[in-house]
Amino acid sequence: MDTEKLFSIIPIKNIKGVLPKSVTDIAVDSRAVSAGGVFVCIEGFTVDGHSFVQKAVDQGARVIVASKPVAVDLEKVAVVYVKNTDRAIALLAPHFYQYPSKRMTMIGVTGTNGKTSVSNMIHTILQHTGERSAVTGTIGFNLDGTLMETENTTTDVLTTQKMIHQAAEADCSTMTMEVSSHGLVEGRLAGTEFDIAVFTNLTHDHLDFHGTMDNYGHAKGLLFAQLGQDLSQRKFVVLNADEPWSERMEKMTSYPVLSYGIRREADFRARDIVLSPDGTSFKMETPVGDFTVRMNVIGEFNVYNALAATAALFAKGMEMEDIINGLSVIPAAKGRMEKVETDLPLTIYVDYAHSPDAIEKAINAVLPYKKAEQKLIFVIGTGGNRDRKKRPIMAEKASIADYVILTTDDPRDEPYESILSELEAGMAHKRYAAIGDRAEAVKHAVSVADAGDIIIFAGKGHEDFQIVGHEKLPHSDAAIALEEAERKFRKGFIETE
Ligand SMILES: CC(=O)N[C@H]1[C@@H](OP(=O)(O)OP(=O)(O)OC[C@H]2O[C@@H](n3ccc(=O)[nH]c3=O)[C@H](O)[C@@H]2O)O[C@H](CO)[C@@H](O)[C@@H]1O[C@H](C)C(=O)N[C@@H](C)C(=O)N[C@H](CCC(=O)O)C(=O)O
């Protein structure tokens, strides 16, 4: 890109050295700098990008954007000094990629729970009708079937613009993004203009970051500001009518609202819901008539997710028949009440639930069809050095299960004992074990299970690691549970080690 054009978008304090005529790329991570590119130094929470300038130069950077003095060979590299590099990259990133969000229908999904499932439902339904679609969030960036890993649910502003650009270049008609409150507050969505904003719910989570529920709710509402002002485009807000926070969200936007729900009046409302271990069916009342929905995913929470996805796609202008057809092929989102395939006499689910509300939803997904003779064994863990207030509330919610195993979920460098004792404080009965090592906790869950029982492993979901200390160790609840179950239930099982 022409350098003068690129930097015309930001206020500059001064420039040292000579700017090249053009630059090839832009990076905020020194490890991602390419020859002839720009490196923008970001002052992070843990490290300061200014300390990686030499690395960026060694990688071939031609221009450095900095807010503090940096020592470089000005014969080879130019330095653009700005007041605030966060602000600079928020402007440079969408400018560099030519505002790609304007080239597609952009759907943003926010809320404490349901973001991943709703986003992936929207994506699957679109693909089912042959539309090219991209989706990004906790599970990664899925561009027309190819999945790429991402660091965060909502990625940094540069990665976000790059992904949107890639989706637009691949001729996707729609991109759906999971939007986290961290992402909104930290400006990771600067330059992203959404057409449809979906809000699912707001329950206790991330209060270590936001401080209060009011701040957390306000952060979620920032998504509505991302709808932009281009009124020639169809714009809608989709709100959960059964969620008390939706009333406040509605006051934060002037765009038309489509509501969905089960318990209260809504534009998209489910009734006659039948929940079973193999799927869910219900009648959906919509502004254009009633439809029968059959889905392979389980639990009432997935009825809410389906309603949210339907309202968003209706807002986009999709035919109801196509939406209903698409809902019938939705697979469980990776790690969201995902049934682990096995012919052993156990029903095992892995779920990402790591907030009190999500735990309640996971348990309620199986209670309607759990037989009296079946035990529900529930394994929960919480992360170390994060939102400690939610720990006892999570354990209290988990107490509905017949047997609970309290453990850790990325303990980081917090001792097991403090995590477990804060969880134990919330337990409403004594039918539980507290085991810090997650692998041992998983094995214990299988050891206390009888044939026919149900086990839910909550917290890790799609993740295949456990962060202990500063190390990211490989870990899979499903793999450990299956191995243990083979040993316990399969006659003639031969130990391989
Ligand atoms: C607290 C927080 O938001 N941290 C985010 C932040 O980290 P940070 O400010 O510490 O940045 P850093 O990693 O120290 O790096 C600073 C700068 O140096 C650069 N650097 C770094 C190393 C190097 O060798 N070279 C280099 O140039 C980095 O690219 C960066 O530009 O910027 C990083 C890069 O964008 C994020 O990955 C990181 O998210 C961390 C991993 C995180 O845990 N975030 C959580 C709190 C989060 O954002 N969660 C939400 C919600 C999820 C949910 O809904 O459950 C999410 O959207 O994921």
Describe the protein.
The modification N6-carboxylysine is found at residue 220. Keywords: ATP-binding, Cell cycle, Cell division, Cell shape, Cell wall biogenesis/degradation, Cytoplasm, Ligase, Magnesium, Nucleotide-binding, Peptidoglycan synthesis. UDP-N-acetyl-alpha-D-muramoyl-L-alanyl-D-glutamate binds at residues 30, 152-154, 180, 188. There is one protein chain. This protein is of the alpha/beta class. The protein has 3 domains: 3-96, 3-Layer(aba) Sandwich (Udp-n-acetylmuramoylalanyl-d-glutamate--2,6- Diaminopimelate Ligase, Chain: A, domain 1), CATH 3.40.1390.10; 100-327, 3-Layer(aba) Sandwich (UDP-N-acetylmuramoyl-L-alanine:D-glutamate ligase); 338-489, Alpha-Beta Complex (Protein-Tyrosine Phosphatase, Chain A), CATH 3.90.190.20. It has 16 helices and 24 strands. The protein has helices at residues 3-7, 53-58, 85-96, 115-128, 157-169, 181-185, 207-210, 213-225, 245-251, 300-316, 320-327, 356-366, 390-398, 416-424, 438-447, 477-489; strands at residues 14-16, 26-27, 38-40, 63-66, 78-81, 105-110, 133-137, 140-143, 146-148, 174-178, 196-199, 236-240, 257-261, 268-276, 279-286, 289-295, 338-339, 347-351, 376-382, 403-408, 432-434, 454-458, 465-468, 471-474. The strands form 4 sheets. The protein has an 11-stranded mixed sheet with strand order 9-8-7-10-6-11-12-13-14-15-16, with helices on both faces. A 6-stranded mixed sheet has the order 17-18-22-19-20-21, sandwiched between helices. A 5-stranded mixed sheet has the order 1-5-4-3-2. Helix 15 (438-447) runs parallel beside helix 16 (477-489). The protein is globular, with a radius of gyration of 24 Å. The model has no long low-confidence stretch (mean pLDDT 94).
